[in-house]
Structure formats: C-alpha cells, structure tokens
What we know:
Chain A is α+β, with helices and mostly antiparallel strands. Chain A has 15 helices and 23 strands.
Amino acid sequence: MLFSSGYSTHESIFGDKFSPRARVARVVFVTARRIVRRAARLAIFASLAVFAACHRAAPMSAAGDAAPPPSAMNPHGPPVSRRPSPPRPHFTLAADALPALSDLPPERRAIQIVASGDRSGDGEERQVDVEAARARGLTIVDLSDGWAPSVLDGASYRSVFTALAADRGDGDGQPLAAGERNYLELYGIPPALSVLRRRFLTDAAGSCAGAYDPDALLAVDQIRTWGASTEQKELARHRARATRLQAARTAAGADNLEALADGSDARIARDAKEHLRFEGERLAFAEVEKRLACGGMMDPRKHKPGAYDTEMRTAMLDFQQKQAVMDQADIKRATLEALARPPLENDLLALERVLTERAMHAAGFIEDGSVGETSTSGPSDGPEPPAKSSRGQPPRALTRSDSVVGATYLGADGTRHRVPDLASAARQATLDALGIATADDAVAFFRRHARADFAWLKVAVRLPPPPEYYSKAMDLSVEIDRGDVWYDFPFDAAGVRQPQPRERFPQLTLYVKWRGERVPLLRWRTTVGGWRAELASDGQEYFRYKGSDVGPRVWRHIVTAPVWIPPPSSPLGSMVKEKRVAGTYVRVTNYDETGPGFLSAYGMVAAIHEEMRRTPDGVRYFDNGIRTHGSFDYPSLRGRFSHGCHRLYNQLAMRLFSFVLDHRKSRVVGPVAAGYRRAFYSRGEVFEMRLPSRGFYRELEPPIPVEVLEGRIKGTLQKPIAGYVPKPGVKYLAHRPPAASDTPEDRAGGDSP
Amino acid sequence: MAMLGSLLSLALAAPACSSSGRGGASPVVAPAVTPDGAPDGTPGAAAPAALPLPDDLEPASAADDRPDAGTVTIKLLADARRQAHVTWGRKDLGVAPLEIVRPRGSAPLDLTVQAPGYLPLHTRVFTDRDDTLSLRLYSERDAIALPGYSPAPAPTPSSSTKTRRQF
C-alpha cells in the first residue's frame, strides 16, 4: 500500500540496486516490514484504545441526556494519546465543590467535575448554581455556542460571529451549505465547542488509524511544492537525475546513493544529496495525500496522485486553517508536524486554544507571557542603541518614580513579582475543571454532552487571582515601537530592488502604571507602514511611502465591526464577487474588504489613533487614518508592511480591546452613521455599495495614551519622501505624478490598512 | 497475520466493553476496511474517507440560540410604472414598491432589481433596523457616468449563439 504506483511517478532508487529484480525484492521486503510494523502498532494502539474506553468512560456520570454510550467506541481507534503515561486530570478541588442541583434553568446552570470519591480516580460531573459558584469566587467560563468576545456585545455583527464559529453561517450571515465548514481560527474566529465536539467524535472513529506513516512525514523538514507546469518539470528533472546517478553509481562501483553523496566528485555528490532529499520529500508527499484523504479533507477521486493539484492544495489550506498552522498551503515543518500528529491530538490542541480564549475573556485577563522573562528596559532593549522617542530624543534615564521595569511589578508586600502568564494558567485551570488531561478525556466529555447542551453549557473554574494592579479603572498606556525603519526608495536608479533588512520588528506593548512604575502586560508583534503601490488619480499606479505616524496619540474610540470606506480611487476589480444567495449563485457587491466582517480592512475591532491638540477652543482630536486593528492578513504580521496602521491578529485584537473595556471607564456610542452609497458598473450591470454604519463605537473616558516611537532609522534618508514616486519600468502618460490625497481614508489605501 | 490478530482482539474486546452496561450504537462509524484488513485511506481509492455522521454532530440551526428580537420592515421604493422586479437569489419578492419583513439582525439581503429598459441593479438591504431604500435604476445611457463603465462589446456571431449564463 505504501508503494502504491499511484504515488510515485518517479523511480525509487533509494539505496537499492537498480536491477528490476532487486528493486522488486526491495519493495517486497520494505512493504512486508512496514506491514508488520504497522500491524504491531495497530494492535498496541487498539488495545490502548479499548482499554481506555473501558477504563475511563465507565465511572463518569452520564449527565448528558443524549450522550452516546462509550462502550462500543472506536474498535479500530487510533492512539488517542501518544504519551507514554497519560497525565491524569485534576478536577475541581473539594473545597470548591458545590451541591449538585438538577432543576436549574439553563441560564443558572454550570458544570463542575469533582473527584468521584472512590478509588477509580475519576471524576463525576454535576450541575451547580452559577450564582453560588460566583459567590464562592469561581469564574464562570462560557462553553456555549452563543459565546463571543465581550467587545462584540451590542454590535449586530455578534450574531454573524457566533454563526461563523458554529459552522452555521457565512460571513454575510447566510446559512452554510450542507457539509460546508468554516475554518476561521486564523482569522480570529475560534470554532465553537459543538464544532470541536464533531471533530473529536468523528476522529474517535479512527478513520486515520494506520492510514499514514507519521515517521515518513517527520523525516523531512519541508516538502517543496510548485505550480502544475513547474511541478512536472521538477519531476522530470528528478527522473533524469536518477538515470544519471544510476550510471555514475555503476561507474564508481558504489553500493548505494549515500556512498555517492559522500564521494569525492562534488557535482555527483551534490546531485546524490539532492536526489535523496527529493526522494524523502516524495515519500512524505505520499503520506500527506493519505493523511488528507483519511481525515476527509481531500476527495481522492478529484486528486491526481503525486501532484499538488487544486484539490490537494485546497485540502491543505483547509487542514492548515483547521489546525491554526500559518503555512498557507506550503508544506513546512509546522504543517508536517500537524499532519503527523494523531487527529485527536490535533483536536486536543484546538480545544486548548479555544478554552484559553474563553477563559481569558471570562476572567478579563490579558497577560499571556509575551513580556517574557525579567528584563529591565522593554522593547528598546537590544544590542543596538535604543529607539528614539517620538520627539527625536533618546529616552530619558529611567527613574524610580516613572520607570520601565520589564516583566515585574512591585507588590504590596514590598517585593517584586513577575508579571504572570495568565493565559497558560487559565487554560490549565479550565482543563482541570473539565477533567480533561488527554484526548481520551476530551472524547469522554463530548460523548457526555449532546449538541443541545452547547446552548447553555458553562463551567465553574477556580482561576488564579488577578494581580493586585487589576481594577475597573487601570492606568493603561500603549507604546508602539516601529522597529527598524527604512525611508530610502527601495529601488536604485537602474530599477533594481535594494535590500532593506530589518533586525527589529514593530511591537506593541501595553503597560499599566502601578506604584509609580510602568509595568508591561503584553508585547505583541504588529505592523507599520512602508513603501506601497497605490492607484493615483490619473489611473496609474505609483509607489508611495505610507508611514505610521510618530508621536503621542490617544485611543479614544474603540470600534467594533469597523467599516472601511473605500476612497473613490479604489480599484473596482475586487468590488464584485459571485456568491450563493438564497439557493442560487449571483454576482453581488463585495463587502469583504469594507466590512463589517473578519475580512474587513480594519479587522473585527479597531482603536482610532487620534492626535490631541490644545486649541483656543479647548482640546481637539484629529484622526489621520491610523488605527490599531485586527487583521485577517496574518502573514503580514510576520514582517510585511501595512498602509500605516498597526495590525494585530484578529483574536488578539478582540482580547485586547475586551480587556481595555473591562478595565477602563467607557460609554457606548453605538452605531455611527456613514450614509455611504456608491454605484458602479461591471459587465453590463450596476452594483450599489451601501455602508450605513462605520461600526459600533465606544468612547473611553479618559482616552488611553499611545506613544508611537520613531524606531531606528536605517539607510540614508532621515525623513520619508512625500507624494508619489514612479514605479521603475512603468511608462507613465503624465509628465509628473499627480498630487497624493491625504484624507484618512486615502491614507488607509486599499487592502488592509 | 499480526494485523489479523489485532483486528480479532479488537472484535473480542469491543463487546466486552459494551457489556458493561453502556451498550448501544456508537455515534460514529468505523472506517471502511479493505479486504486485506487495512483501513482504506489511500488516495486513488474508489471513495473518499467519508464518515457518515449522525445529525447530532451537525451544527444547530441558526434559530437555536438567537433570542427573538422581533422583525424589521424594509421598504423598497420605485416608480411602479417601471415594473422593477426584485429578487433575492431564487426568491421572487415582487415588483417595487414593496415591503420586506425579516427577523431583526438576521442577515443582510443581496437583492437584484430588473426593469425593462434598465440595467440590472444589485443592492443590499440591512436587517438591523427598519429601512427605506429608493431604488435608483440606470439605463445604458445613465450608466456612462458610472465608475467602471465600458460599452458592452458588440455581439459576435459566435457569442450570439451562446446561452446567457444561468445563475
């Protein structure tokens, strides 16, 4: 099965003789060995699975009214845990256990899992009163499908969010087609618990048990992939190289290719190494095909074996988005590791991520360990001179009364305490409260709960106490370090692109002022502006430096489900899409980029950077189009440039602004009218774009100070070039570029400000 | 043989488990097994690794967790003489002027308006509040002023025989 001819369009010369008889013998031997190994593995896994099913599931109380019986589970089941000795769940402490009540209305119900008291070491699930749990100091973590981050409360987009998370609806709020799935965790929408339930129970059926070889997947660091025509050429080159190496091996009298690879002829050695590497990748590729097929991600009938075709590429993207791997259809190490893991282990990781988000929001925590180990100077630390402040001066010396103190804070006891990683602690506490330590436990949990339970399900959790600097009115501030900044035009006079390497990347740090010190709570990667192509008013594209404003600003408004108003210069090409509407496919205006929605240029939540100026009429605020906002464009956070805005991962942006609203005084402004209506023509039809609202606004009282540091200016220019710069190699109709507009919307530009 | 042994041991072990008082159908279905006993996850096999799922695993319907927020009324205004026909996907909503009543906050509706002598118009109405929308229809001559306008190409003999794309 492993050597199915369908997988290898090339010949295998992996360390064997080249005669057909020898190759057949080798294939038979290896196949037989793998079958025996696989059978042994299957027998061990199966025994473990059956043992686990019998041992673990029985003592748990059947609280779920329609919980499927665990007895017959998974006769061909895969290993649910590859850990040699599975950890044991901790359950709710006896001191926190509340009386079991069976007649509570759904809104008053939470679950607790307490040790059963017998020698089994297992837990017993019970329903308890939410109010009693809160009175006991427990936190209620919402596990229902109706959950959404609190920053979405009040916004009409909330219902779209919950429908997306539960695989019920699309980004416009329309129902999904049967069997259609949203894999949107990377876009900031973690799957609902009922979606995870489906994954666990499906994967517990074990369709992938023994279907692929994880060792072959992990034997390579990546699998190179190409487009269709290049792929054929690469495979042909590989075959030709194999023929050459066969002749070389015969001539050299070498036993195998490894000997050639270690030989003295540099060219042949290089060829042999490349051939061995390619062979390993092709073997792994065959396992990827099997893994995607057994997991139901790819329909083998639509896939050409051995080719990275559209079917497989789409399946790979789905798989990566399902597992929150950011490889974007490339098959790199993170993807290979996710593919090699048993499906239930991937499900457990997804559950951990989801519970982390739920618990952090429930507790109103933000510290996630990103401020790292104790340091004394925050993001400015490093081998190079520290970043200049926004005023162009080096940061003043730190003082006792107003210092940046790294990841510690001064406690009431007079000693320094490390800023905790509350994300890890909250996740572990929630898992413990649910009695989940292994994928087995999670399967048992989901077997106990029918889908209907996820309309109300909540769990009472003993979370770590908030640090003493927590309050309803925390003295928060934000610092954005732009990192290394190049103002130089990135092409030379001959039109050759010039490298502009950066060692330090932009970072956003949230501080709380506590006992006279600025204590960093989180430090996340973000983006700053740079050189971008932009459509000018003459209809031609130019380069323009779209930098991020430097200096003191404030966050005064937080906008949920923000809407980006496209400027008149926006290209129309992407403003129409085809989609299914009420049972048929039609062309419609594309609101993806404008929002509201997870694909919006401003993400699912944004804070407006406003410049506070004192005028004779009092304090006035100016919006220059810069925001800190969530973004679907997660790869951009790994080193690309924005149009000037500071992007965050959507889920982190929602976590951050939910936290801010929890710990600052604010008032709800509500939907702010935009009244935007624009008609345009496309292929014989007229399309209207209507944007009635700019989003759901809240106003912080007082605003949060934001300091944008200039960063380290690299290269020759110390100030950015204003206006448009012609693109090298482009012939322009006009003698000189038109003037560039500087309205906030124009500054934001096209895709993802 | 080892694999056969393992399957045999599984076949013996599973009933032992279900006999502990938790018998009944498994909510999930075991994978397809090829004649040689190996689970069939091979690309190129006759069928995908489909797992028949019970209904209980599929997402709950949209109404399950949405509180009843009432309805909204959307008025679409147009000169009745223009016979502006409004459709929402497959659904024929009638001739404008008309009113659409929808659950509040359900989802925006992408509508198509077609009237004799005018270009098809695509617009969107929202369901978060009552709304009134005056439909502005464009003739081919009006459309010249619209962004993105380009004259429709003259039909060629080959293209004239093509059937218009059916949505």
